[in-house]
Amino acid sequence: MEIKQNASAGTTESSDIMITIGTNSGQGILIELDSSVEKQFGRQIREKIQETLNKLSVTDAKVQAIDKGALDCTIQARTVAAVYRAAGEENVDWQVLNTWNV
Amino acid sequence: MNIRRIWLDRDQVGKQQWSDFLIKADLIPDDQLDYTIGIYDQEKLIGTGSIFRNILKCLAIDTSYQNENLLSKIVQALRERLEEIGYQHYFLYTKPKNSKLFHSLGFTEIAATTELVFMEQGFPDFADYLTELKKQQRMTQNNAAIVMNANPFTNGHLYLVTEAAKWAETVYLFVLSEERSLFDAKTRFELVKEGVSHLSNVVVLPTREYMVSSATFPSYFLKDQAKASIAQVQAVLDATLFKEKIASTLSISARFVGEEPFSEVTEIYNQAMKKTFGSELKLVILPRKKIDEEAISATKVRALMEQGNYTAIKPLVPPKTFEEIMKQKNK
């Protein structure tokens, strides 16, 4: 999917993560992470975001992630929601998303 | 505990309660707000936050309720509102001692003075703006900057640019991107570009929201209402941002401004710049260009437009600006 506009998903409440996505045309993926559990899980959170972007075929994006201790499933859900909004795509392809969880 | 909207313009009791609350929290109840919410414990106000355009303002939490994560709740509610009305990029002012709190909520610092920290969240951000500026950078040594609204671009502006262009190797001419003028931002930008096209060492750039905008300097746009002390604090912030972030990025060594005998806020702004720039950045204040003993100003041009006195406008503005004015007249 192509990132066409700014969009965000999630909150900065405890156990959640706020993902903001913006365009980064032709310059790859840039993830900026601020996490309350950065030391323990920073690498894993970044990987989860990156992996989700890969699955959605997002190649260029700027991502700001404010994490308050979100679980992997939350990170994935917020990233998916933010990407769909940023791509201006209203119909979520559940079939594809479901295949991720096999 | 519940969050609800406070209708400042209709709810006198609610407004009084809110105003007392802010004063207790050492904040000034601002009258430049679009939307205000409060968190209540029964009927007691224990936290509040507001929005003006895309700026978060007047945020306060009752000290006896701190550590309950109320700030996060307020910011979240305001974010949802911002998103609803279409803002994905927003700003915030806070006191230096609170900036850490907002950082943990995802805000990034743009500039700070001893009294204020100016923060933002969302894209495109300040870093993107600086990248945009660098793309237009010329590799010269002695550079000057001018920031103008150009509403519209007059011969007075042209004089200022011409003088700066004589002095400097490159002049970076910033045109306000804010949409709060008679002429829209795109038109103003084009007229300036056209008006200085004969000067090869002038680069015209947009200010986005980082110079004299309603974010960095709201009182500029409400000159009549601006309280001098608030304008002063904002002017220092705007000047600091310019000096530390913009001037250093483009190796600017001087800023040119027109003398301002009429507007108090602009005068405060000029004074604040002088003080903030210190010895590192030169502030050149030029007297206004005059025609028949009268200073040319955009304000004057707008007044003449109002009166429909187009012949009097002609000598005050470059040909392209005049064309645009006539176009507006015929609309």
Automatic annotation (TrEMBL), chain A:
Domain of life, source organism: Bacteria
Pfam families noted in UniProt: ACP (PF06857)
GO molecular function: lyase activity
Statement: the UniProt record of this protein carries the keyword Translocase: no
In-chain residues carrying the UniProt-annotated modification O-(phosphoribosyl dephospho-coenzyme A)serine: 14
Entry keywords, A to Z: Cytoplasm, Lyase, Phosphoprotein
Compartment annotation: Cytoplasm
Its biological purpose: Covalent carrier of the coenzyme of citrate lyase.
Family: Belongs to the CitD family.
Assembly description: Oligomer with a subunit composition of (alpha,beta,gamma)6.
Protein name: Citrate lyase acyl carrier protein
Automatic annotation (TrEMBL), chain B:
Recorded superkingdom: Bacteria
Entry keyword annotation includes Ligase: yes
Boundaries of every N-acetyltransferase domain copy: 1-136
Alphabetical UniProt keywords: ATP-binding, Ligase, Nucleotide-binding
InterPro entries according to UniProt: Acyl_CoA_acyltransferase (IPR016181), Citrate_lyase_ligase (IPR005216), Citrate_lyase_ligase_C (IPR013166), Cyt_trans-like (IPR004821), GNAT_dom (IPR000182), Rossmann-like_a/b/a_fold (IPR014729)
GO MF annotations in UniProt: [citrate (pro-3S)-lyase] ligase activity; acyltransferase activity, transferring groups other than amino-acyl groups; ATP binding
Reactions mediated catalytically: holo-[citrate lyase ACP] + acetate + ATP = acetyl-[citrate lyase ACP] + AMP + diphosphate
EC number, UniProt record: 6.2.1.22
SUPFAM superfamilies: Acyl-CoA N-acyltransferases (Nat), Nucleotidylyl transferase
PROSITE patterns named in the record: GNAT
Role according to the record: Acetylation of prosthetic group (2-(5''-phosphoribosyl)-3'-dephosphocoenzyme-A) of the gamma subunit of citrate lyase.
PANTHER family, A to Z: [CITRATE [PRO-3S]-LYASE] LIGASE (PTHR40599)
Record protein name field: [Citrate [pro-3S]-lyase] ligase
Annotated organism of origin: Enterococcus silesiacus
